[in-house]
Design goal:
Layout: E1 3-8, H1 11-21, E2 28-32, E3 35-42, E4 45-51, E5 57-61, E6 73-77, H2 88-99, E7 104-107, H3 113-127, E8 135-136, H4 144-152, H5 160-192, H6 204-220, E9 225-235, E10 238-244, H7 252-262, E11 268-279, H8 287-298, H9 302-314, H10 334-341, H11 348-355, H12 388-404, E12 409-420, E13 423-434, H13 438-441, E14 462-472, H14 481-491, H15 499-508, E15 512-513, E16 518-519, H16 521-533, H17 540-554, H18 560-580, H19 582-601, E17 602-605, E18 613-618, E19 625-629, E20 640-642, E21 648-655, E22 662-668, E23 671-676, H20 683-701
Parallel strand pairs: 1-4, 1-7, 7-8
Antiparallel strand pairs: 2-3, 3-4, 5-6, 9-10, 9-14, 10-13, 11-12, 12-13, 15-16, 17-18, 18-19, 19-20, 21-22, 22-23
Helix pairs in contact: 1-4, 2-3, 3-5, 5-17, 5-18, 5-19, 8-9, 8-14, 9-12, 10-11, 14-15, 16-19
Length: 710
Amino acid sequence: MSRVLVISEKPNAAKRIAQALDEKGQPHEIAVGSVTYYECTKDNDTILVTYALGHLYELRQTEGGWNYPRLETEWVPKYEVEKKAAKTRPLIALIKRLGRQVDRFVVATDYDIEGSLIGYLVLKYACEIDTAKAQRMVFSSLTKSDIVEAYESARPNLDFTMIESGCVRHKVDWLYGINLTRALTLSIRKSAGWFKIVSTGRVQGPILEFVALRDKEINLFVPTPFWNIAVQGIFEKHELSLEFSNGRIDNKEMAYALADEIRGKTPYVDAVREKSVVQSAPPPFNLSDLQTEAYRLFGFRPSKTLSVAQKLYLDALISYPRTSSQRLPPSLDINAILNGLQKIARLGPLVRRLLKQAQLTPTQGEKEDPAHPAIHPTGTQPTEELRPNERKIFDLVVHRFLASLGEAAVKKIVKADILCGERLFYVRGVKVLITGWMDFYGPFVLMKEKALPDLSKGDEIQLTSVKVDEKYTSPPSRYNPSSLLRLLERENLGTKATRSEIIDSLNSRGYTVGDRFELSALGYAIYETLKQYVPTVLSADMTRRLEEEMEEIQRGAGSRESVLSEAKANLLTLLGNFRSQEDTIGQALVKGLQRYWREEQDMGPCPNCEDGTLTLVYSPKSGKRFVGCSNYRNGTCSTTFPLPQKGKVLPLKKQCPYCGYRMIRVLSGRKAWETCINWAECTGRQDELKALEEKRTTKERTKPVEDEDI
């Protein structure tokens, strides 16, 4: 009989692991002050299960002072670095105590770089043991069967190459983030006497450049006119839009001459071509694909999708979401998963239909991940009603999994060439012949049919309209959270777990505005300053090379010492260049900050006086904020608008479609919403609020009665 300490990553995971390992499924939950652990029994062993709340240890400089460069670091308890991490103190104390009561240690954190590092640091600094003697549980879902199998076949050693890679990544990110942030911040203080933290980092710099370069493309773009021939016709009561085979026309006179030429002519079908296209089922999701699809369908930012997927994983409803894989292993019991899913009422008919297929072989994508398979449902039914966002992501994962098992779809593409005089036009139609996997992906299928009547060579079409439309070329689109995420993945910048967080930081730090990433005055000033004086900070090549070197360490081929040595040498050169131009850099950043603050307060022209500007105002008496005219203080204009008092208010470069006043975005915690400064009087906004209140009231009225409510 032995005593074992199992270290998980989160409280929910600890509870599930304890329930799975306990022989009766009823582990003892033991509270010690504000923290808890679980005690269970298996095969005469006493197993203590605790958790780490994410990282319990963080890097801190060994030297004192808020200056740069700072190159030497040490791992210390998180509560010594962050005031908000005070709750980790009793947890570390508990783990220390439990570590003295056991003779075997098992790490059961997430099987990835961060999870492996978390477990290793807890063993090394809290338990103070020889980490070479610890075991490693590896699992991709929190179902009972996976947990038991992972425990019974625990690896005899920790994944040290993964730990090394994680350790190096943290140190490199700390070196660049801390030193560059201090350099920027201190240059501002030296120039203007302000202490305004301005941050950048190893990955944030290149992202800022991507956004800045796209901004420049858009700002320098000169629209050029072109003309389209819009031809409408009817065949057997079917309206047809005829497309000019040569596409757009760059000459106005030529376009109108062409329109005059075909008016009065009778178009007829010159040729009809058909082809069948087989469309294979899509592979199951990896994290990036899930985030992209959730943004397309629901408008979820990548970070929101990851957060919801993580919650579903901790509830044992889906497999581990932080994976690059689009493949499912042969060992996965697909029938067991489907049998579990068919017990969910809304999914039952669809699953039973799939079970009738002769074969259930999932489509395998090209991308692999050695640690985890593609994201898939576990077959576990929710024990309580899912929240709306959880249900959306759960259903999306389930339907994609079902679709990956479906048969190929077949669609027929028809293209008919239409002659109008001597000019060639065409019509195109799409019809799905065999729906296949599309039936299982259901509401999420992107493709739509386009009906065409049965056309044959020689059929005449009645011409109903010939118009010339003048249009202009469009600039490239701004990045959105989804397209920026895909760009980072292509460029191999950041990790699948950190990319969404870094993207969000651009908005939260005021460097970009809105979901369509547009540089703010502050973001532009930081970019231009870095570009002129220390362009290496913006280099995607440097960041990518570091990523590749850390991946080599994970594969056991790279050297931790050489990567850190190179990173420090490059950083010292960069900081030396920075310090030699510190005054100039500080002045440039100060100007950018001043423009940014003006932008942040500017709410547009006052509607009631001729020369006033609406700005964000704070009352010196009450401390409340409101929008007021700039002439308010001199008594010539009393125009004011109330504002929500909680959260950060950001003016947007657009007007309310109902009343025409400036729109604002209110950020409160993780929530954000848009309204106008005239929200209290705007009839459109009030109608929206009433609709939301009615929806909430209806939901409360239709909520099922629970036993304790009776």
